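TL;DR need structure tokens for one chain.
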Amino acid sequence: MMKYFLPIICSSILFISCISVAPKQDTSKAVPRLNTLSGHDDAVTAVVFSPDGKLIASGSRNFIIRLWDVSSKRELKRMKGHIGEILSIAFSSDSTKLLSGSTDGRILLWDTKSGERIFQLATGFGDVLSVAFSPDGKYLAAGSGNNSIKLFDTATNLELFRLTGHTDKVNSVVFSPDSKSLLSASSDKTIRLWDVASGNEQLVLNGHQGPVDSIGFLTDKTSIYSISDDNTVKLWDVTARKETKSFSREHAAGTPITFSPDSLQLLSASTNTSLELTDSATGTREAVFSGHDGKINSIAFSPDGNFAVSGGDDKTVRVWDVKNREVYHVFKRETMPNTSVAVSQDGNFIIVGKENAVSSIWDIKKGAELLKLTGHAGIIRTVALSPDAKIAATAGDDATIRLWETETGKEIKTIKNNSSRVNSITFSIDGKAIVSGSEDNAVRFWDIETGKQQRELKGHAAPVVCVVFSHNGILLATSSKDNSLKLWNTETGKNVFTSNSNTTYVVSAAFSSDGIHLATVTANGRLYLWDILKQKIVEELNSAVRSNRSVCFSTDKVSLVAGTAGGDLNFFQFNSEITQSSGLFANSGINDIVYSPDNKYLISAADDGTTHLFDVKTKKEIAKFVSYRDGEWVVMTPDGYFNASENAFKYIDAIEENNVYPVEGVKEKYLKPDIVAGQLGGE
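>> reply
TL;DR here they are.
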């Protein structure tokens, strides 16, 4: 049996020392922080080990890169800067820097210790499919979706060459061990070798019958391997310019497959969400690793072959003990996305709906979770509070609207919505009725006392996604996936205005308190301001941002805020003219936002399972509220003081600079419910 030895490549390195026990550290200066917001909020699209074996970096479909400490199994950094899906990441040879490429056409360079962005390179050539550092640290390379490669000087950050010759997208770029050559693989079925000093093409290798996805140098520096969608793995002699070996390895097109460092094994992602480990010479299956609940998008080996990492559509990063054939650790989110939020008229508590069929009622003055409302059998899409705050309403995928006593959490009534998912609910101004918009195209009024349907507003030809009352209760705005926005007179039930869009539909809407304006956010992320009397759009706000998700007016109509998919909250002031300001960031996409009744605070419900309380005047976060899958909860202020349920300490770390410790060492100092309550109360 022939053996083929591969070099240690920076994208797949993990020394066994990564699981050693660190000596006891001084935690006196460490500050608590939540550690379970660490899971990705969207599909994981790229994973890589650092060359020193201490870190894992992962990139996701929602633009975020996360840095993990392998030894402590904790998230260290969250790096936000891209505005497109992360397609590729690579560490520098000394592990101090991280390179990332995205569908936004940019390359970003990050400091791995601080998590800060060092610089940005605008490639100007579309999707950045592959990035690489040269081993000597002098060069960066990027392969693109427009068939070309760019080579950069790390000392000046200037582009040295644009390498052209491929006739289809460049899927992979790898530097030679001596940094003198660059290897590229393309969907044009070819492999090309380039001279780094001159930018000249040195070699073109033909032989694959499908796109070439992965390439690498062998340890003898003159041989390379290539993996293609034609289900073949080929070895090549660069000096002789010829193929030396080819064998079949079936895998679905586009699924990752990689060699172990000693070339004796192949690890591939199958279509059934598992990893298969096979003998590279015989094709004999040695092990199957199962656990992902979705397509696997990226995999990498450790240099000693004992570990591997994978990332997939299930939003998890999984580290596998290849030697012992078991999972080593799963980096995942312990929270479920928040879908909606409502605040009581007295401003004392909020209700938050979540994707795991649970709603939480929080005392926002004391900083504590009061109740969990359970009973739904699917995602909770929408929540609401009655004007007197005595009744909470929740609704969602199980086609029910449930009414609860806010004081006790007791379920009062279940309203069945004709077996159709409920997307939006709102209480009438007098609190006697609740209005629902549902998947069966209907807008229905329900009597709170009896649970019976009072009437139905007909006119939409597709699912209704948003219903909202004007402040005086006379108008009801509804939007539908038929791309229409309708205004109804609630006294007569008549449709008084309909606007039909040729492009998309409204997903969030809010009336100004004076009833003059309506703000809407569309499914394509645009934010519009309507004049109700003129019945037309008067301005597109935040036009440079196409990722708006939610919108809310302050009750005094002085300001409007929009939340984005990237976690930003942008403010608009209504004085003599509309002015925009920003400055709040909630880490993850904002699905719903509300002002407190006195307009002092802003409350946001985010994709990562956090609910944030912001001070509107100072534009600073006051606290974040987190409810976990297992029922535990934490409320934490920015300076690390927290209140928590009895067993929630497992979800809190202490961190100083780049060091992560268990929270026990500082729990006595920072577990301060009184300080949390004081800060929430404005002290």
